[in-house]
Amino acid sequence: MSTIEYRVRHAISAFLIALLAACGGGGGGGGGSSSTGSSTSTPPGGVQLQIVSFGDSLSDVGTYAPIASAVGGGRFTTNPGQVWSQDVAQYYGDTLNAAFTIGFDHKLTAQNGYGYAEGGSTVATPANQYDFLTDVIGNVEMPVNQQVSSYLAAHGSFNSGQLVLVWAGANDVLRAGSPPAATATVQAAATTLAQIVGQIVQNGATHVVVVNVPNIGLSPKGLAQSDGGANLIQLSQLFNATLNGALQSDGLQGKVIEVDAYTWVTQLIANFQANGFAVSNTAQACDPKKTPDDTALLCSPPTYAASNADQTYMFADDLHPTTRLHTLFARFVEQQIAASGLGH
Fold first, then answer.
1. Is residue 269 within 8 Å of residue 280, measured between CB atoms?
2. Cα(165)–Cα(152) distance, rounded to whole angstroms?
3. What is the 3-state secondary structure of 212-276?
4. For a Cys-Cys bond, which of 67, 246, 281, 326 suits 194, CB 3.0-4.6 Å?
5. Does residue 311 contact residue 285 with C-beta atoms inside 8 Å?
C-alpha cells in the first residue's frame, strides 16, 4: 500500500470512528420498509406491485450504507444514484429498501425492507470462503439461498401481488478460476440457482424475474485480465447456458420471466455512444486515486473522474454499472416484464 493510500484509509477510519462515537454506536440505519404505499394512483408500470429482490452487489440497495454513507457511498454504483432494482420498484409504485444492514459492529441487522441482495454474495457459497472488502464490511454477506430462507422465515410465503427479482451468479463466475476446475463450479452454481428459483415459485410467487449473468469478460475488470477477459466470457456463457437448461428441465421456464443481461450489455457496449455514453468499458467513473478501496460502494461525486461521470461512463468501478447504465437496464427489464403480459 502506498503512503497516500494509507493516509486516505487512515483518514476514513478516523472519520468513521468519530461518527460512531457521535451517533452512540452502530446499528441498522438505512433500512426501512418496502410497501405498496397508500396512493391509489396507477404507477408508471400500469400495475401496483411489491418488489422483493435477491442477489449480489448489482442489486444491493444499501446493505452496507450505514458504514459507506460516512464517505458518501452506500450502493455499488455512482452514488448517490440508484441501482436497477430500485428503479424497477418505483416503476411499479414501490420503494425498495434493504432487508438487512451492517453497522460498525460488522453484524447484519434485520430491517423492514425487501431488498435482500447483498454485495459480495454468491449463489450458495458461505461468505467466509472468500475475501470481499473484509476491511470494510467483514465476512457477513448472505448467499442467495440464505437470503431466500431469511425471507421465508420472516414472511412465510410469496404472493401474487409481488414481483420477485433474482440476479445472481456473477461472483461465482468471478471466483471460479479457470477450466477445467472452474467448469464444475460454475455449473453447480447455475443449477443451484435454478433450484432456488423453483423454491420461490413453489412458495407462492407468480411474477418472478430471473436475470442471467452479464458479459463479465467485457467489464474493465475482464479487459484487465491477461487473456483480455476470454475466460470470464466463456464462464459467463457457461453459467447462462446451464441456468437456462436447468430452468427448462425443472419446468420453470414458463413460470418465470427470463432477462438476457448478457446479450443486452454486449450490444450496449458495442453501441455505447448511440446510447448516450461518452466512455464505454475502457475506464471507470469512480477515480481509483480518489475512491477508497477503488470500489463503487465508496464512490461519490467528489471521487468521480468527471462531474457528470455517472451519466457519461458505463462502469462505476471495474465491475459495477453507473447510475445511467442501471437506469437503462431497469427500462429493459420493465420492457421484458410488459412483454410477458404484466403491466405496460
1. yes
2. 15
3. CCCCHHHCHHHHCCCCCCHHHHHHHHHHHHHHHHHHHHCCCHHHCEEECHHHHHHHHHHCCHHHC
4. 246
5. no
When pLDDT is cut at 50, 70 and 90, the band that residue 73 belongs to is very high
Cα 60 to Cα 80: distance, rounded to the nearest angstrom: 13
pLDDT tier at 33, thresholds 50, 70, 90:
very low
- The residue to which cell 442477489 is assigned: 55
Which CATH topology does 28-339 take?
A: Rossmann fold (3.40.50)
Q: Domain residue spans in the chain?
A: 28-339
Cell 467483514 sits on residue: 138
224-258 pLDDT, tens per residue? 999 999 999 999 999 999 999 999 999 999 999 99
Phi, psi (deg, nearest 5) at residue 50? -90, 130
* Coil/strand/helix, residue 332: helix
How confident is the model over 125-168, as pLDDT tens digits? 987 666 667 767 767 889 999 999 999 999 999 999 999 999 99
In this structure, the number of other CB atoms found within 10 A of the CB of residue 17 comes to 12
Which tens digit of pLDDT belongs to each residue from 5-21? Answer: 333 344 445 444 333 33
- 183-192 burial, b for 16+ CB within 10 Å, e for fewer? bebbbbbbbb
Are 285 and 304 a contacting pair, CB within 8 Å?
yes
Q: Which residues contact 339 (CB under 8 A, 6 or more apart)?
A: none
- pLDDT, residue 131, reads 67
Spatial neighbors of 244 by CB under 8 A, at least 6 apart, are 212, 253, 258
Query: Residue with C-alpha cell 477477459?
Result: 229
DSSP conformational letter for 321: B
User: What percent helix, strand, coil does the chain show, rounded to 5?
Assistant: 45, 10, 45
**Statement: residue 27 has pLDDT above 90:** no
The helix (run of H) or strand (run of E) holding residue 136 is: none
